[in-house]
Amino acid sequence: xxxxxxxxxxxxxxxxxxxxxxxxxxxxxxxxxxxxxxxxxxxxxxxxxxxxxxxxxxxxxxxxxxxxxxxxxxxxxxxxxxxxxxxxxxxxxxxxxxxxxxxxxxxxxxxxxxxxxxxxxxxxxxxxxxxxxxxxxxxxxxxxxxxxxxxxxxxxxxxxxxxxxxxxxxxxxxxxxxxxxxxxxxxxxxxxxxxxxxxxxxxxxxxxxxxxxxxxxxxxxx
Length: 222
Known about the structure:
By secondary structure, this protein is α/β, with parallel strands linked by helices. The protein has helices at residues 2-9, 16-27, 30-40, 58-65, 77-90, 96-99, 130-139, 173-182, 188-193, 199-208; strands at residues 48-52, 69-74, 100-102, 115-121, 141-150, 158-159, 166-167, 212-213, 220-221. It is globular and about 50 Å long.
């Protein structure tokens, strides 16, 4: 079921090797187990954490294993249902409906000042309205809270994380679509779901919102 969903969602994007790596690293716990201890050391014991774009729920579950009151919100129904099932298996006393919410990060269903930390793991590049999205993340963050961000820098020479092809800095989008077709890739995912972000652009946006950079590897602090 999981493979069918991923094959459909990333048709013409992931090859078999990339699909297997995605399942291992992000559906599984490779990435989650790397970053969850960092947050557990930075926010209060039992602190409240919101993971926006929670995907299949691995990071939220890893954070809850470490004693954090972590919840996730995700716009893809299949992924929310998958996350709820795995939580129910591992932590039957937790309420899957309140831990994993189906919803949009542009309109978070939480009161202001609700969380000690908000995490955005490879989410910003999939959002059209970056400013509104970050404003919502800031709104639900308590004073002194932290936003943790991982986001590709499209101003750098890099390997595109989804298509796994070489990507020049800020390649014009029309040319990029032709380039992907030339590489025998389906450009639809790029055209509809990937939007260029740069380090300086994200940092400038957050500074204009009154936030300040820290030395936490990409976190921004109120």
